[in-house]
Design a protein that fits this description.
By secondary structure, this protein is an alpha/beta fold. The protein has one domain: TIM Barrel. Helices cover about 35% and strands about 15% of the residues. Strands 1-2-3-4-5-6-7-8 form an 8-stranded parallel beta barrel. Helix 9 links the parallel strand 7 and strand 8. Helix 9 crosses helix 10. The longest helix has 20 residues. The radius of gyration is 19 Å and the shape is globular. About 35% of the residues are buried.
Amino acid sequence: MHNSAISQGNLYIGLPMWQHSHWPGTWFANYPKSDNGLSLYAKECNTVEGNTTFYSLPHEDAVARWCDSVPEHFRFSFKFHQNITHVHQLQHCDEEVAQQLSLLSPLKEKLGVMMLQLPASFGPEKLPVLDSFLTALPKHLNVAVEVRHLAFFAKGSEEKALNQLLIRHKANRIIMDTRALFTGPCNNVLLSEVRDKKPRVPVNVIASGNAPVVRFVGNDEDNDNLRCLTPWVKKVQQWQNEGKDVYFFCHRPDNKDAPWLAQQFIDLYNDVRLTESSHTPPSLTALPDLAIKTQPEQDSLF
């Protein structure tokens, strides 16, 4: 297929949660008060990193409410439950996998990606287990895999074997970018806690499937975030032009501030899009701004 025949991929930008106690007074301040945080969130972002299912599975009534709260173009990205990934480490858990996928099945096309977050103990010797697990999943399911064992980042035979396995299954390798998080001094308690929890792994950029997933973790310095976000803009646009659907998730040490990191990325994306298209019509659609662009005042607690 020639490039000209490839339809452009979608860009899904989201956060690691759809509600925060701060947002009604900041991000959502211009909206009428609502008890449905998801419906407000879905007016602003078109995906969300659903960490909730990692810890507990929702009731089927909740899944129905979620589905009804978002427009047709919205895409949920839910994690497999920790019993599957961390307790059983993908073995002897067929019933639990079937239960979770059945529970989420009413979302239909709104279930964009199922995220498989593996622990650091899941190393190269367990690749056959991952192979069997991915083989058993429904073929229509869009799966993204996050690894944390350092051998998978060393650019050696182990990483090559992982990437080839994912490519064979058309599974997406989740790219965790924590460079901005670990930039600069650690001058408050919250930042220290977040740095302790987040993995500090190299950023190996690869699209092993047709829906690349980037989890970008910033810090509280706009310039640091800007420097680390900038290279992603051209890569994301390249993937879109190759027909891939891209998922880009924005984290901050306190995720009440995550919308403003997403807006930074939107500004960069639109600037590059216009600059590179100064002599021809822009090939990619401009991203809409979020409701509030000004950075909220930082709490003086630290």
